[in-house]
Design brief:
The complex is a heterodimer of chains A (282) and B (277).
Chain A lengths: L17 H4 L7 H24 L11 H14 L1 H33 L1 H14 L8 H8 L3 H25 L3 H9 L4 H39 L4 H10 L3 H29 L11
Helix pairs in contact in A: 3-11, 4-5, 4-7, 4-9, 4-10, 6-7, 7-9, 9-10, 9-11, 10-11
Chain B lengths: L8 H6 L7 E13 L2 E14 L3 E5 L6 H8 L7 E6 L11 E4 L11 H5 L1 H5 L4 H14 L15 H14 L4 E5 L7 H16 L4 E5 L3 H7 L2 E5 L6 E6 L13 H24 L1
Parallel strand pairs in B: 3-7, 3-8, 5-6, 6-7
Antiparallel strand pairs in B: 1-2, 1-4, 8-9
Classes of the chains: A mainly alpha (282), B alpha/beta (277).
Chain lengths: 282, 277
């Protein structure tokens, strides 16, 4: 007779416990980040060595240590932070203005076929126009000050948000609309209970894209027309050939991008707990 | 032939009937347009259902069953004929009905509790009361420990329980179900069929149940409406003389006989449908 283990007795066969015996996923989030950081450090190390041994020209590619010192000086003197604040205000101002307009029109176009039919050709015509090309026009209409700059950023942020929001509404399963209508949802309830939450994953994606072009156009606007902000500082460094300052400014812009995206991701996780990690495309 | 007519709230109010719940389709026809021309989905469909009744509709695929259900729900206007409601219309002249679909009926962004309470929320029941009622129903459906989860954590069968719970807990008196168990494995389907009957028997609701599963139609319904292929017409109405309350009478000879009789009605249609494609 075969031996059967009773509950109190240790089984002769090892019981597989999935919690203990499943190998960890090949690349965890922390490990991935760590590897990325190490790669960046290694690259900078090589660069540092090459610059110090004068194998590459310090004028064009100053050593990372030099760039870091410039960055630290800029932060300590407050100059870098002032430029950062100015740029950030332009980016956020444009993002809020253009993003919310894009969101409203995008949701409307996604919900209504008639609105979509009328607005779509107009959008198709305006979208490919480089928004920076509109700066002279906006300066004529809104003056040389802050508003024309923010409006260029807003115009850039508007389109990706609009297209994402529209696609977000259209990919909502028709069944959800039908169920809500059959139980007698009002227009307002349809918006708050179906359209907004249903389109959220795509709206998050739109926010990320819009934030990206907002940055891009804020820097570009500052390079051509401003005396303050990170873009202006970038242009100034080029004109006086302060390559270290140029790299320091680029570093700040890159860090700002990472920071903004982390903030948005945190908001999405907190505000929409039903979303799958895959749906948080931000 | 009747002129195209919208669902008529005025007429409904003048219509009185001894039974408080009821729907009546009068010569309902539906045509829809595709790129390759107009397609007749439904033709001259007339039937009525009253009171605490469970009516199922079977027919070959593509016969317009779902279109008919959407017309009854007021989500689509009939091209011809009309639908009358004896129970009163909700907002916008639509009947207060609850829809249950094959899949994806639950909202992924609402917790199980909010999903079940959704019908009540739309009907203006205050938050505290609707949560209490939904909670009570969730317990009866064995979902009590999942009320704060989102549907993504649930199996298909459990999601369908949520959907059915939402329909029964709502104040809608007419429930329209479009193949609610169609995507389920056979064992889950058996369990949910029995649950549906139990909940329905304890309620006072009228259920119109669409299915492609002939046996399911016979097991659940008081009457089975058999539809023809496109354009969908009602070919025959077959009563199921099994006493209520009934417990899924899967092993009864009479169920087999009726199932067989319906299949004989449908077989030719199904074959025609297959050979055209």
């Amino acid at each position: 007779m075969a031996h059967l283990a009773t509950p109190g007795e240790r089984s002769p066969h090892r019981i597989v416990d999935p919690l203990v015996d499943t190998p960890p996923p090949p690349l965890s989030e922390i490990r991935g980040r760590l590897i990325a950081a190490l790669l960046a450090l290694a690259l900078m190390g090589v660069w540092e060595v090459l610059a110090r041994t004068h194998l590459i020209s310090g004028t064009f590619l100053p050593a990372p240590s030099v760039i870091l010192r410039t960055l630290a000086d800029g932060v300590l003197s407050g100059e870098m932070l002032r430029a950062l604040r100015v740029t950030l205000l332009r980016v956020l101002g444009g993002l809020v203005l253009g993003g919310s307009a894009g969101l409203v029109l995008g949701l409307a176009m996604g919900s209504s076929r008639s609105i979509r039919l009328v607005a779509d050709p107009i959008i198709a015509a305006l979208h490919p126009v480089p928004k920076l090309a509109l700066l002279p026009l906006f300066m004529m209409f809104f003056g040389l000050g802050e508003s024309s700059k923010i409006i260029v950023v807003a115009a850039a942020a508007f389109f990706p948000m609009l297209l994402s929001a529209m696609a977000g509404v259209r990919q909502i399963n028709q069944v959800h609309f039908d169920v809500a209508r059959s139980y007698g949802a009002s227009r307002r309830q349809m918006l708050t209970r179906v359209v907004l939450p249903g389109s959220l994953p795509m709206v998050l994606m739109g926010t990320r894209l819009a934030a990206n072009v907002a940055f891009l156009s804020a820097i570009a606007v500052e390079m051509v027309s401003a005396s303050t902000g990170l873009g202006a500082q970038l242009w100034f460094s080029w004109q006086v050939l302060r390559v270290d300052l140029l790299f320091a400014t680029i570093t700040v812009i890159a860090l700002l991008g990472v920071g903004l995206s982390a903030v948005l991701r945190g908001l999405a996780r907190r505000g929409a707990p039903w979303l799958d990690e895959r749906e948080i495309t931000i | 032939m009747l002129a195209p007519q919208a669902i008529d709230a005025q007429r409904h109010r003048t219509m009185t009937n001894a039974e408080s719940i009821g729907i009546r389709c009068e010569a309902v026809g539906s045509v829809y347009h595709t790129r390759s021309g107009a397609i007749r989905a439904l033709e001259d469909v007339s039937f009525s259902a009253h009171g605490h009744e469970l009516v199922s509709i079977v027919g070959p695929s593509g016969c317009g069953k779902s279109t008919l259900l959407r017309i009854i729900a007021g989500l689509r206007q009939p091209t011809m004929g009309r639908v009358l409601y004896e129970d009163g219309l909700g907002k916008k002249g639509r009947p207060r009905s609850g829809l249950v679909f094959q899949e994806y009926g639950t909202f992924p962004w609402m917790s199980v509790l909010d999903n079940i309470a959704f019908g009540l929320e739309m009907q203006g029941v205050n938050r505290q009361e609707r949560r209490a009622r939904a909670m009570d129903f969730a317990e009866r459906l064995g979902l009590g420990s999942f009320v704060h989860h989102y549907p993504r954590d649930l199996s298909v069968g459990m999601r369908q329980r949520v959907d059915i719970g939402r329909a029964f807990v709502s104040e809608a008196s007419v429930l329209l179900m479009d193949e609610p168990f169609g995507s389920m494995d056979a064992q889950t389907r058996w369990v949910l069929q029995a649950e549906l009957l139990r909940i329905w028997q304890a309620s006072r609701k009228l259920v119109v149940f669409i299915t492609h599963d002939i046996e399911e139609a016979v097991l659940l319904a008081d009457r089975v409406l058999v539809m023809s292929g496109r354009p969908g017409m009602i070919r025959e109405e077959i009563p199921v003389p099994i006493a209520r309350p009934r417990d899924i009478p899967r092993d009864q000879q009479c169920v087999r006989d009726i199932t067989w009789r319906i299949w004989r009605l449908l077989e030719k249609e199904v074959r025609i449908g297959l050979s055209i494609r």
